Amino acid sequence: MDGQKLTFRYISNRTDRYGYTRTFKVYECEDCSGCPLRSQCTKAKEGNNRKIYYNEKWENQKAYTRRKLSEEETGEIYGQRKIDVEPVFGFLKANLRFTRMSVRRQDNVGNELGFAFMGVNLRKYTAEKTNPTLDDDNHSNQKGSNHQKLMIGTFFKSFLASYVPPLFYTTVLLP
Asked: How do residues 105-162 score in pLDDT, each as one tens digit?
């Protein structure tokens, strides 16, 4: 585009494989033949000119996002996200090797994520608590040192309390 003008040619509508239609304004160079920068500027076949596809909606969205991210309040929110959210996902991926879903459909994915987050929360809960009756090794003075036993015990206690109906009822007769 060695000093060449780009003129508006036409509007192009493209539909992707998901059915979303995008509108582009197509600008074309007046004449690319004999341009010394042609090989760096375009991959178009000889005889065709350089075309630029401009999606106005997409460019406006990028400008809006750039503007929002540069605001001080937004920076504080994203700074807090690094503290609150990212460590949980990092733990899930690095330590629990939870890198992809094993199910499909939104409700199933929600259930699977719920179990994963429940595991993280149980681990946190049991790491904060110390229970010397379950902590039978020599590390009873370390906070949360035996969290796996505690986590399993806590999980099954909460599971039994909420999901398993009583097996039998006893009646106590008072004199």
From this structure: 998 998 988 888 888 888 887 777 755 554 455 555 555 455 556 556 655 565 555 5
- Name the CA dihedral angle for 84, 89, 90, 93, rounded to a multiple of 10 degrees: 170
Domain boundaries of the chain, sorted by first residue? 6-64, 89-163
At CA 123, angle to CA 120 and CA 128, rounded to 5? 130
Q: Euclidean distance between the first and final Cα of the chain, in Å?
A: 103
CA distance 170 to 3: 94
**Rounded distance, CA 48 to CA 30, Å?**
10
Burial level of 131, CB count in 10 A (0-12/13-18/19+)? middle
* Token pair recorded at residue 9: 């040619």
Q: What does pTM read for this prediction? A: 0.45
Bridge-partner residues for 10, per DSSP? 26
* Environment class of 42 (CB within 10 Å of its CB; exposed 0-12, middle 13-18, buried 19+): middle
Query: Rounded distance, CA 47 to CA 76, Å?
Result: 53
Q: Give Cα separations from 44 to 4, 6, 26, 38, 47 (angstroms).
A: 16, 15, 15, 9, 8
Q: Can you tell me the distance from the alpha carbon of 87 to that of 146, in angstroms, rounded to the nearest whole number?
A: 22
User: Nearest 5°: phi and psi at 94?
Assistant: -80, -50
